[in-house]
Amino acid sequence: MNRRRSRRTEPPGRGARTTGKREANKIEKFNRIKRAARELFMTIGYDEATTRKIATKAGVALGTVFTYATTKRDLLFLISNDLLDEARHGAEASFQRNRSLQHNFVAFCAVFYKVLQAQPELSKLVFRELLFYDSGIHSMRALANRARTLKSIEALVVNAHERGEISLPQPPDFIAWLLFSIFQAENRRWLALDRRDLSEGLSHLWSSIVTVLNGVSVRPVVQKVPESVLRTMIAELG
Question: Are residues 75 and 51 in contact, defined by beta-carbon separation less than 8 angstroms?
Fold first, then answer.
């Protein structure tokens, strides 16, 4: 009598357990790499913390690091994107429609100041590297965060205009970009101080914003540079 040979099958649930364990190992490596990068960036400095040193500290192969970040700069944003997302969400929640533009904007920025104050050295690195950050696995998230931040500031500008508080000599997105640029410059100034007092930082930011909103010219200045003036300036450069 012919006996049919039975196929060996995995015990119920074994495949799921294997997959679950594999995913848990990936997450555990991912977190070790983030912790190692953060610690080395903070202790020996960004420039000295090579990807090889980070891999060694994390206890993983160098190639494993590059499955989570394409460059060292990408590693920096791997560990800072969560921080920036958290700050943006808190900043958006600070908005109050009946407040002035400068009040809403400085309250918006205050959330970032508070987050950055908790990790000033890491924040310095982020601001230094963010300026030209346009490549790497995590660049899209960092750039998307910046774009959403700009849109949130634009909403503050539009609200101020709808309340009759400001005019719009330029489109709202341009004014938002200008305010954001001041915010970045103020952040760099503040982070460079030996003592980062939150009240001092926000007061300085308020004065900068008010100066821009009030203006400094006795008479109105043309909004767009005349073509003849632009040509002259370039010609003078030689």
Answer: yes
Q: What size, in residues, is the chain? A: 238
Instruction: List, as own/partner pairs, every contact residues 162-169 make where C-beta atoms lie below 8 angstroms and the sequence separation is at least 24, other chains included.
Output: 163/97, 165/100, 165/101, 166/101, 166/213, 169/223
Own/partner long-range contacts of 18-25 (Cβ < 8 Å, ≥24 apart): none
Output the CA–CA distances (angstroms, integers) from residue 232 to 86, 203, 226, 229, in the order listed: 47, 39, 10, 5
Q: Which two tokens stand for residue 32?
A: 């070790």
pTM confidence score: 0.77
Least Cα distance to 68 among 120, 116, 26 occurs for 26
Separation of alpha carbons 86 and 83, rounded Å? 5
Q: Which residues of 6-19 are buried (b: 16+ CB within 10 A; e: fewer)?
A: eeeeeeeeeeeeee
59-77 burial by CB neighbour count: b if 16+ within 10 A, else e? ebeeebbeebbeebbbbbb
Q: Please say whether the beta carbons of 111 and 90 come within 8 A.
A: yes
The CA distance from 186 to 206, in Å, is: 10
Structure tokens at 237: 């450069």
Three-class SS state of 238: coil
List per-block mean pLDDT (blocks of 10 residues) for the chain, which spans 238 residues: 50 63 85 90 86 94 89 84 86 94 94 86 78 69 87 97 94 96 93 90 94 85 83 87
- Domain annotation for the chain: domains and CATH numbers: 14-68 (1.10.10.60), 72-236 (1.10.357.10)
In one-letter notation, the amino acid at residue 222 is V
